[in-house]
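Narrative of accomplishments. A recurring question from our advisory board has been how the design workflow behaves on a single, concrete structure rather than in aggregate. To address it, we present the structure tokens for one chain from the evaluation set, followed by the sequence designed for it. No filtering or post-editing was applied between the two.
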């Protein structure tokens, strides 16, 4: 029996729409996770919740969390830049 490691990220955004957009940006990576690793996410109000579970070791958990945080940060920045560009051209 292998040990299960798990973590949950909760990130509050300014609105539900942005949280949902960022969740959608993460979906392609989550669908290709190796066996023994699951990444699930959902939005509650304006909070993005991402749960990571793995039987592959704590190192895999930490690396996955690090990758998720980088992807979340990039998606957040891209969406913010797009919104800013759109409002600048109005």
């Amino acid at each position: 029996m292998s040990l299960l490691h798990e973590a949950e990220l909760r990130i509050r955004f300014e609105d539900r729409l942005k949280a949902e957009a960022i969740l959608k940006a993460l979906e392609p990576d989550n669908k290709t996770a190796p066996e023994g690793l699951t990444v699930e996410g959902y939005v509650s109000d304006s909070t993005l919740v991402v749960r990571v579970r793995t039987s592959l070791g704590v190192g895999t958990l930490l690396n996955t969390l690090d990758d998720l945080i980088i992807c979340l940060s990039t998606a957040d920045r891209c969406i913010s830049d797009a919104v800013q560009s759109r409002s600048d051209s109005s």
